[in-house]
Write a structure and sequence with these properties.
The chain is of the alpha/beta class. 25% of the residues lie in helices and 31% in strands. The chain is globular.
Length: 194
């Protein structure tokens, strides 16, 4: 299997690579449009800031490449947010795969960023197979996607938000499956089996 990781100067590449290697897959890190188009599966990871990441993607034409991919695509953390319509982080227009807005947690009531283990509720879709009823996953983020028709799992930290999204061949997690122990590894297995 040829699995490509989107390179766009956003973090957590190393931990995603290690998690995939533990599952027997050696990903290719690339910002080459042709490599992304011809991969069997694509993972769009990320830790970083939305407007800088989108500027990098646009400068290389990757915004158009990613939105037209036909194989299974998995966005992780910032990857999920960039697949949404827009982000309140520096008022950023994103890729628009999911018609969700990304907003900031309210500082007044919560410790931001949201960091730690939280359980998933309302879990559905193929990535949720064999994860158990309310699996705990590891989150680190200050912004979140609101819930909507493409929400396939929710988490509550102050507001209830989209922990997972799915539309056609696009899947996304706000949490970090690569840092989420056994349930996270199972979710990555589920993605690799699509």
């Amino acid at each position: 299997m040829k699995l490509a990781l989107v390179q766009y100067n956003a973090g957590n590449i190393t931990s995603v690579t290690y998690a995939l290697e533990r599952l027997g897959v050696s990903p290719v890190l690339t910002d080459d449009p042709e490599v992304l188009r011809t991969a069997d599966k694509v993972i769009f990871p990320g830790v970083g800031e939305a407007s800088t990441a989108m500027a990098y993607l646009r400068a290389r034409g990757l915004d158009q490449v990613i939105t037209h991919l036909k194989q299974p695509v998995l966005g992780i953390c910032l990857g999920l947010q960039l697949l949404c319509e827009s982000s309140a982080e520096n008022d950023t227009l994103c890729l628009g795969v999911f018609p969700h807005k990304v907003v900031r947690f309210p500082d007044a009531d919560l410790k931001v960023p949201h960091m730690g283990w939280n359980n998933l509720t309302h879990l559905r879709g193929p990535l949720g197979a064999d994860l158990g009823e309310h699996p705990y996953m590891y989150f680190v983020h200050s912004y979140y996607a609101e819930t909507g028709p493409y929400t396939t799992a929710m988490t509550t930290y102050g507001p209830t938000f989209s922990a997972m999204l799915q539309k056609d061949n696009f899947f996304a997690t706000q949490f970090h499956p690569e840092k989420s122990s056994t349930p996270g590894a199972q979710l990555l297995r589920n993605f690799l089996a699509l």
